[in-house]
Each structure stands twice: as C-alpha cells, then as structure tokens.
Amino acid sequence: MPPRWRRPCSPAGRTENFFKYARENYGLDRLADYSTETVSETVKVVNPAHRRLDGQVRSAAGKLSRLLAQFGAMNLNDTIEPEKVEPFMQKKAALQEQIDLLRNEVQTAKAQRKDTPKHVTLGELPEAERFKQLGTQSKHLVDTLKMIAYRAETAMANSLREQDRLARPDEARSLLQALYKTEADILPDHEAGTLTVRLHHSANASTDAVIQKLCDELNETETLFPRTNLRLIYNVG
To answer: Which of 36, 141, 207, 234 has the most Cβ atoms closer than 10 angstroms to its Cβ?
Structure first.
C-alpha cells in the first residue's frame, strides 16, 4: 500500500491543539492555589458605577420595547359604545403613562452613564469595591512543569510514530497515557550504579514490543536519577 499522506499542521493549529490537549490531560487551566495578590492602584479597571448604570439602561430599554409593542397591538375591535370605549381608553392611557415614565428613566440613566467614566484606576474606586487578584507565581511554576511534561510526552510520541508508523496521530499518545498508568518495580543497585524501572507486561505482546523499543531509546540517553549517581534503566517485565 502507498504511504498515507497527512496535511502538515500549521503553527496556529499546533498551538491550538497543544492548549486543547493540555487542558484535557494536564489540567492547564486549573488553579494551583487560592492565594491572592494586591493589584496596583494605577491599574485601569471597569468602573462598577458605569456597569450598574449600563445595566439600568438595558433593563429599562427592554421593558420600554415590550410596552411599545403592547401599545401598538392594542386595538378596539368591539362596537363604538361608551361602556366599551371608555375602559379601552383608560387602559391605553395607563399604558401610555408607563411608557412615558420608562422613557424618562431611560433618558436619565443614559445621561448619567454618559457622565460616568467607563474605566477608572483601582485607586479611584471606593474601598469597598476594590479587589485583589488570584496569585500567579505558583500557577506559573506549575504550568511550566506541565508544559515540560507535555514536551517530553511529545518527544516520546514522535519516537513511537517514527519507529512503528502508527496509523493515527493520537494513537501514540493513547499508548503513552496507558503506559503512565502501568505498574512498575523500582530496583536500585548501588554497586552497579543503576536504578531499574521494570514495567509490568501489557495486555498483548505487540504493545510490549513497542514499549521496549521506547525503553531502549531512553536507555541510550544514560540519564541519571536526580540527585543520585544511579543511571536509569527501563525495561518491560
């Protein structure tokens, strides 16, 4: 069979795929903690007073639109007799009065909104309306570690694809995700200067063969376990 051709992914697509995958598998958007930090008083923020006035304008304008539609739909379909015309005129007059009141309310709120700045500095807000932001230092650190883990997983996934020509792009990552959950024995040997990570067998021999190839490639790096002189060795069962 001829080799399959895959359209190369653009840099924007790779970035989008990274954030989607990292959110689903690495919890990229999760908070590391709930600590808060003081915000500089010179930072521009939305003026709460302007937001409240804008809400009043929108609410009153919505009510006004509904009353105008109701007023326009009012028709006297009965015969022109005093006992029928007078209640109709009273009802329409009362509705007209509500419309006039709402129009004044909308105009007043719009004038106040126009005279109220949309953005102010945090220092200009009343003390009761000032706020703090969530802490970012620990989140930046955790997100950096997650991105490093993603880069490492990507390198291993690329290695699996090159060695075994997996049919689907996501097949390598699925295999690695299953590998991360596999039980293993940790066997230190201080005399030999090694730390063996012996993975338990998977459900089928073909998967074991793929994982062993990855282990062999990792072993070629001769990586030392952090803060020790023990060389890491990976193998299957």
So the answer is: 234
Question: Any residues with CB less than 8 A from the CB of 154 and at least 6 apart, and which?
Answer: none
**Residue 188 per-residue DSSP state:** E
Residue 67 reports pLDDT greater than 80: yes
Task: Report how far apart, in Å, the C-alpha atoms of 214 and of each of 148, 199, 220, 227 are.
Answer: 19, 12, 10, 24
Hey, what domains does the chain have and what are their CATH numbers? Answer: 182-237 (3.30.70)
CA gyration radius, the chain: 34
Residues near 14 by Cβ (< 8 Å), separated by ≥ 6? none
Q: How much is the pLDDT for 191?
A: 93
Entry pTM: 0.44
Question: What's the token pair of residue 121?
Answer: 């500095």
Q: Which residues, listed in sequence order, are joined to residue 233 by a DSSP beta bridge?
A: 196
Sequence-distant (6+) residues with CB within 8 A of 198 are: 184, 185, 187, 235, 236, 237
169-187 tens-digit pLDDT? 678 888 888 888 888 999 9
What does the pLDDT look like over 139-167, one tens digit per residue?
A: 677 778 888 888 888 888 888 887 665 65
List the Cα angle 178/197/213 in 5-degree steps.
65
